[in-house]
Design goal:
This protein is an alpha/beta fold. It contains 4 helices and 5 strands. It has a domain of 83 residues: HUPs (Rossmann fold), CATH 3.40.50.620. The longest helix is centred in the last third of the chain and has 17 residues.
C-alpha cells in the first residue's frame, strides 16, 4: 500500500483500527512509518485546527487524550466514531463514472513474495512462577503480603 501511495498527493489517510481476521492493528502504523507520516491511533474525534488536525484518542481506563497533528497525517479510526451514512442514488451513479486506478505489483517494483510474513515459532509461555496462597487472619495475611512485596522490590 505504501508503494502505491508514494506518488499520490493527500492531506489525510484514514485506516481502520483492527482487521476482523487477525486483529493485529498494524496496517495504519506500518503504513504511516513507511510513508514517513505523523500518525495517531484509536481516534474518536477529528477537528480541523490551524492548518492541521486536532484529534481525540481513546486511552486505557476510559481516558482520552487530545493531540494536534500537522497535515499530511495518518489516523487509525476507532469503530463508532460517527453515525453511519448511506450513499444517495445520485452519489452511487456518480461514483460509477469516476476513474479507478489499478496498480500492478510489477509497476511498483514489488513481487507477491516481497511482503510475506512467516511465523517462525508459536509456543505457550513457560510458567516460571508458582502461586502461593497466604493463610491466617486478614491482619496476618496483610503483613505477609507486605513482606513479600518488600522482598520483590529489594530483589535485583
Amino acid at each position: 500500500m505504501a508503494a502505491g501511495l508514494q506518488s499520490e498527493s493527500f492531506d489525510l489517510i484514514l485506516t481502520g483500527l483492527q482487521s476482523d481476521d487477525a486483529g493485529y492493528a498494524q496496517t495504519g502504523l506500518l503504513l504511516a512509518e513507511n510513508l514517513g507520516l505523523p500518525h495517531a491511533t484509536i481516534i474518536m474525534k477529528i477537528e480541523p485546527h490551524a492548518g492541521g488536525l486536532r484529534v481525540k484518542r481513546e486511552l486505557e481506563g476510559g481516558r482520552f487524550q487530545w493531540l494536534e497533528l500537522p497535515r499530511p497525517a495518518l489516523l487509525t479510526i476507532q469503530s463508532g466514531i460517527d453515525k453511519l451514512r448511506y450513499a444517495t442514488l445520485l452519489g452511487i451513479k456518480q461514483a460509477k463514472n469516476k476513474p479507478l486506478a489499478r496498480l500492478e505489483l510489477s509497476s511498483l517494483s514489488l513481487s507477491p513474495d516481497s511482503n510475506r510474513v512467516a511465523i517462525a515459532r508459536l509456543a505457550m509461555p513457560e510458567k516460571t512462577k508458582a502461586t502461593e496462597m497466604l493463610a491466617g487472619t486478614p491482619a496476618e495475611m496483610a503483613t505477609a503480603l507486605a513482606q513479600k512485596l518488600r522482598q520483590l522490590h529489594l530483589a535485583p
